[in-house]
Amino acid sequence: MDLVPALEEPLKKVLGPATAKVMAEHLGLHTVGDLLHHYPRRYEERGQLTHLADLPMDEHVTVVAQVADARLHSFASAKAPRGKGQRLEVTITDGSGRLQLVFFGAGVHKPHKELLPGTRAMFAGKVSVFNRRLQLSHPAYELLKGDAEEAVDTWAGALIPMYPATAKLESWKIGKAVQTVLPSAQEALDPLPASLREGRGLVSLPEALLKIHRPHTKTDIAAARDRLKWDEAFVLQVALARRRYADAQLPAVPRSAAPDGLLAAFDDRLPFTLTEGQRKVSREIFDDLATDHPMHRLLQGEVGSGKTMVALRAMLAVVDAGGQAAMLAPTEVLAQQHHRSVTEMMGELAEGGMLGGTEHATKVVLLTGSMGAAARRQALLDLVTGEAGIVIGTHALIEDKVQFHDLGLVVVDEQHRFGVEQRDALRGKGKQPPHLLVMTATPIPRTVAMTVFGDLDTSVLDQLPAGRSPIASHVVPASDKPHFLARTWERVREEVSQGHQAYVVCPRIGDEEDDPRAAKKKSAEDEAEKRPALAVLDMAAQLAGGPLQELRVEVLHGRMQPDDKDAVMRRFAAGETDVLVATTVIEVGVNVPNATVMVIMDADRFGVSQLHQLRGRVGRGSAPGLCLLVSEMPEASPARQRLNAVAATLDGFELSRIDLEQRREGDVLGQAQSGARTSLRVLAVIEDEEIIAEAREEAAALVAANPDLTGLPGLRTALDALLDEEREQYLEKG
Questions:
Q1: Is the pLDDT of residue 151 over 60?
Q2: Whole-angstrom Cα distance, residue 634 to residue 631?
Q3: How crowded is residue 719: how many other Cβ atoms within 10 Å of its Cβ?
Q4: What is the pTM for the complete model shown?
Q5: Which residues are CB-contacts of 683 (< 8 A; sequence separation ≥ 6)?
Q6: Angle, helices 562-573/332-346, rounded to nearest 10 degrees
Q7: Cα–Cα distances in Å, from 59 out to 49, 62, 661?
Q8: Predicted local confidence at residue 63, as pLDDT
Q9: Where are the beta strands (DSSP E) in 247-361?
Q10: b/e per residue 572-584 (b: at least 16 CB within 10 A)
Q11: Of 210, 227, 182, 202, whose CA–CA distance to 14 is shortest?
């Protein structure tokens, strides 16, 4: 987060082109300000050695240790056939363990002179194994001279900052570069208003930068981090508050349902009563729709909590008021499914202009990329004339040639599947900005909602509709207890014999060419990771020829033609298929109440939220659901603990917290940021819940009183830096 013009000096002018190039390419740092905001990840104490016993394999590490011994060996090789090859082996220790360093050839001379027993130094390199022992080959190192003033200055007093580094640039080199630019920190303009800073007892920004890079005590580090967390939380929340403020100034057409119109007719024919949660959320939405500025609401709902019903009632209210509603779905399978379920729920109310349509009826059209030309032409005509009140489609809705008579509401299903430009293009099709309802079935903890969807008002559906059945979940340890896997297929047969259906989900399709990059990415967590993930096509063939013989098994995956996908889903929905072997294409929105079993193969290769989404495809009818998570991971592994957590609770909000706590902070906002580098360096969205909530209140109050941020140059500059192009997408979630 680059702050002020004084800090916009390019690094190549200050550090030289070679270092600046590495910093730009590997760490994304371009200016003095960028470098000052590249904070240490942790600190080493001079008298305390790092734990060599805990070194991670295949990672680039920096350790502080003492040389125990150093030996020079000669050996013969192709390059040195007469035994003139040289290898220096240095053993270092830190009290917790020992580590071997090796240097070869001409590279032995300098370390042989410098790395004498008793010498302390920082060593950086990639951890590998040789002869079953950990080693660093040709590590970079920096001697720590205990008595020299220079070492004390360079390594920031008693605490040595350890920076996020790369193989091309060790932590101490970054530290030296930071020392070079640190005097510029004095010129950093403070983004926090003085009243806020003083009221909360926070140090100034120049002081925080100085203390985080050159702390003398742990108290310095804590004071700096507290201050810098506030910067990140507050600047982000001001950006979101300004977005909310700007949206509130936009004009929109108020849309209220007619007392005896389409919505009333629809409610009258519902065969069940809405849950209290559905009624409450509907009221919030109807209140928003009745105002003269656009609704921006996020509807979070547990899997199966009836979000589609709430969204449909909102669309009907807008049609009642003379407008049109568009629902944007991420895939063709889902768009077709929504279209089918909406027309079924509406019955003759969806037959506007047709024989059999009732007085209040409207037309519900589908628009996807793979439609035939004639059907597409008719759909486009129905939209432009206003004949169709509701359109459901994929991003085909966004194309230039799609025009609406009067677009009043946009419903986006599973928001994270859409880019910002796509959503804005659809919003641009209204004569005035349409109301916006974003639905997500991924439960989001409160702080993440405040951070990622901070410009939306949030409604939560956490009650399951009546008639929904509980889902039992179990982990099937396939390698520890193979008979459990055999029992899994027996359970599937039992359910099918009772007239039910089953899903089997696999991570891969199986027709991919072997990707050489995939081999490199494998984690060393366990032997199970060394084989490729199970594939739909292989699994379907194995099951049909083995444990599920005589059952009707079909496959579904993302690379099938849209018509074929739809045909498979129709057959499954109609009960003509017993077992559907699929990829995660079924993760979102697929609704077959008769499906009662979900078997997820290699379940450890899916994320917690994804497993929860998949599980939500069963138990949608009156019969209880069963979800079996098959894994070959050993019992003590983190992957198995993750699966146990999913099996232990059906509470999506609880699982989303577990998910976030297990992932790196940068991933939390990953989907929201379209791959942009996270703007959060010290703020942790789960741990710092209080700071985020307080910063949101402060930001809202400030923007309400001073929307142009007059007299706050530091805050304006910080906002400009936050809202550079790569982060624009992240904030444009709304």
A1: no
A2: 9
A3: 18
A4: 0.65
A5: 229, 232, 233, 691, 692
A6: 40
A7: 19, 10, 21
A8: 80
A9: 296-301, 324-328
A10: bbeeebbbbbbbb
A11: 182
Best CA proximity match to 88, nearest among 68, 106, 71: 71
| Two structure tokens written together for 518 | 């995939």
Q: Which is it for strands 501-505 and 60-75: parallel, antiparallel or unpaired?
A: unpaired
E strands, 589-660, in order: 595-600, 625-631
Q: Which amino acid is at 577?
A: T
Q: Calculate Rg over the CA atoms of the chain.
A: 30
pLDDT in tens, 718-731: 888 777 644 444 44
97 close to 51: Cβ distance less than 8 angstroms: yes
Instruction: For residue range 474-504, list pLDDT tens digits in order.
Output: 999 988 888 899 999 999 999 999 999 999 9
DSSP-derived secondary structure for 708-721: T-TT-HHHHHHHHH
Q: Could you give the CA distance from residue 445 to residue 266 in angstroms, rounded to a whole number?
A: 34
Reduced to 3 states (helix: H, G, I; strand: E, B; else coil), residue 62 is strand
> Which residues, other chains included, contact 195 with Cβ-Cβ below 8 Å and sequence gap of 6+?
none
What angle in degrees, to the nearest 10, is found between the helix axes of 218-249 and 689-705?
50
Mean pLDDT score, 187-207 = 92
Residue 514, by phi and psi: left (phi above 0), alpha (psi -120 to 50) or beta?
Answer: beta
Cα(715)–Cα(698) distance, integer angstroms: 13
Is the CB of residue 368 less than 8 Å from the CB of residue 398?
no
Neighbouring residues of 483: CB distance < 8 A, sequence distance ≥ 6: none
